[in-house]
Design brief:
Mean pLDDT: 88
Structural class: alpha/beta
Strand content: 5-15%
Largest sheet: 5 strands, mixed
Low-confidence stretches: none
Helix content: 40-55%
Number of helices: 7
Order of helices and strands: HHEEEHHHEHEH
Radius of gyration: 18 Å
Strand order of the largest sheet: 3-2-1-4-5
Shape: globular
Length: 207
């Protein structure tokens, strides 16, 4: 696998790590980190095809794995910030407030869902192109879909995707399959949002 990155982007990341007192060991791709986290924490049997959909802040990463073998990956330039923007515009609030409402809609649940629906459909339309490409390229579709990232736990999101795509869908907690998983974590942190970080942390460790 050959990957390229702009020098200034790499330098910026290294600068942040060094300023925080860290010593960088490697630079990795988010898609590969997701695959490493999946291989370590959620091994599959046989040749089951799993689609991992990681909804990050600015973009969505789609990984398609047969067993634990990564076969295809693609990025979509729409993520959680786009969902937040939709809520902000519909409810006429600032982005910070929209983010809080998006995560915990409470009594505004119906308003938030109405605001998110068009953006969800736009997002799913782009995902479907990758689903169809994988099916045509490899001669089979997904057996199940796994959601990752901060937006994976949004109210009604998983159920809506499962109904729209027609395959079993679940939210992935990458901590659940690790023998060294902490006994507790801050309640404000969703396990689904840690998958890339865990994949990066696993790099170079004996398995």
């Amino acid at each position: 696998l050959l990957a390229a990155a702009r020098k200034e982007v790499v330098s910026a990341h290294l600068g942040v790590l060094k300023a925080a007192g860290g010593t960088p060991r490697a630079i990795d791709l988010e898609a590969i980190a997701l695959a490493n986290a999946w291989e370590t924490g959620r091994p599959q049997s046989g040749s089951e095809v799993c689609g991992i959909v990681h909804v990050g802040a600015k973009r969505t990463i789609l990984n398609f794995l047969s067993g634990v073998q990564l076969q295809f990956s693609r990025e979509i330039l729409l993520g959680g910030e786009g969902f937040t923007q939709a809520v902000a515009e519909a409810l006429q609030v600032h982005a910070a407030e929209a983010e809080k409402i998006k995560i915990n809609p409470g009594e505004r649940s119906s308003d938030v869902k109405a605001a998110l629906q068009p953006r969800w459909e736009e997002w799913l339309s782009q995902c479907r192109n990758s689903f169809d490409f994988y099916d045509n390229q490899f001669g089979r579709g997904m057996d199940r879909l796994v959601l990752s990232g901060g937006s994976a736990a949004l109210e009604g999101f998983k159920e809506w995707i499962q109904e729209a795509v027609g395959v079993p869908t679940e939210v992935w907690d990458p901590l659940s399959g690790l023998s060294a998983a902490p006994e507790s974590k801050p309640s404000s942190v969703s396990g689904a949002s840690l998958s890339v970080a865990i994949g990066l942390a696993l790099r170079g460790l004996a398995r």
